[in-house]
Design goal:
One of its GO terms (molecular function) is ATP binding. Helix content is 45%, strand content 13%. 32% of the residues are buried. It has 326 residues and is of the alpha+beta class. The strands form two sheets. It has a five-stranded antiparallel β-sheet with strand order 1-2-3-5-4, covered by helices on one side. Strands 6-7 form a two-stranded antiparallel sheet. The structure holds adenosine-5'-triphosphate and magnesium ion.
């Protein structure tokens, strides 16, 4: 099905990142909700032709269980200096949103921090989905994702985990400095050093992401958004020992030897020694999760959906109250 921009009605903002804004929209002809991402771009012929080439690669990717559905990309006079990408709407949002919602519940005292929100079976399912999606993109299209991080892993209440935001290179959209501002960097050491890199760069990012989901903190420490702060972080990634899962969580919970080993195999600084996508897909941590079936995971996704709704309501109440106090 092809979707025309004029058939879309804007419903609200989902979020925005460094490069663009994502809106929830209604596709009127079939009452389907879809996500519409707009990314401002420079109006230069060279940028434009490269973009068209990249968008055509995105169009060629066939649907897959672990890749967010793609419904079209536009870059025309009518979209004036922005690319518009239409994609499947994922109603549980991204992992960073889920993480911040959980933190907000803990802060409100509604949720106790002794429950591990990203439990091991959940992390195993998520890891499988990311690896499987990455392998599909690489095997079928020689696409390396390059931007695996919590905000680019999306979940829906049917229990699907999908990756998004591959294909359009960051360098066309922003200058390097802009790209780093406000984000932690999940880039692998070899990529920072400008060596040739492979899908193993995404394996590194997956490792960091799991540590972040477990601990609630980006594992390589904070950085200021000044050029010095960013350089310092990049320098640390290259020169310091790789991050590790802490032996124990603050709430006393422990995880299995398999999970510990899995993360250790992702967070290897030397690209050659780091495990590949295929190797990790056969890892015990993944196998264990797959053998447990999907029922519990689907249940977890449904719970998230409920939480997101509740969080929205609570936020609205909190805002109203703040207004009254004023
Ligand atoms: P960056 O610009 O650094 O990549 P980002 O990934 O957070 O950061 P966007 O890709 O613009 O920025 O996405 C903004 C937010 O919109 C995401 O954090 C995610 O929560 C949400 N989002 C993106 N795509 C979808 C989608 N298809 N369905 C539901 N929510 C989405
Ligand atoms: Mg994104």
């Amino acid at each position: 099905t092809t979707i025309e921009l004029q058939d879309l009605v804007q419903l609200g903002k989902i979020g925005s990142g460094n490069s663009g804004t994502v809106l929830k929209t209604l596709h009127v002809p079939d009452s389907r909700i879809i996500a519409k991402k707009s990314i401002p771009v420079e109006n230069k012929p060279l940028v434009k032709s490269q973009l068209m080439r990249e968008l055509s690669i995105m169009r060629s990717v066939k649907p897959h269980d672990n890749i967010v559905g793609f419904f079209g990309a536009f870059y025309t006079a009518s979209t004036s200096n922005e690319i518009v990408i239409l994609m499947e709407y994922m109603d549980c949002g991204s992992l960073d949103k889920i993480m911040s919602t959980y933190k907000a519940f803990v802060a409100r005292g509604i949720q106790s921090s002794t429950e591990n929100w990203f439990s091991e079976p959940v992390l195993s399912k998520i890891s499988f989905a990311v690896l499987n999606g990455l392998l599909y993109l690489y095997r079928g299209y020689k696409i390396i994702h390059r931007d695996i991080k919590p905000s680019n892993v999306l979940i829906n209440s049917k229990g699907c985990v999908k990756i998004c935001d591959f294909g359009v290179s960051k360098k066309l959209i922003n200058s390097i400095a802009d790209t780093f501002v406000g984000t932690s960097t999940y880039m692998s050491p070899e990529r920072i050093q400008g060596s040739v890199y492979s899908t193993k760069g995404d394996v590194w990012s997956l490792g960091l992401m799991i540590i972040e989901l477990v601990t609630g903190e980006f594992p390589l420490g904070g950085h200021s958004d000044t050029p010095e702060g960013i350089l310092d972080l990049l320098q640390r990634i290259v020169n310091e020992p790789p991050p590790r899962l802490p032996p124990q969580l603050p709430n006393g919970l422990q995880y299995s030897r398999e999970m510990f080993d899995f993360v250790n195999r992702c967070c290897v600084k030397e690209e050659r020694e780091r495990s590949s996508l295929q190797e990790l897909l056969c890892h015990d941590f993944i196998e264990k999760g797959r053998s447990q079936g999907d029922r519990e995971f689907r249940h977890w996704c449904k719970r998230i959906k409920k939480w997101l709704k509740e969080d929205k309501m609570l936020r609205r109440e909190e805002q109203e109250r703040a207004k009254l106090v004023k």
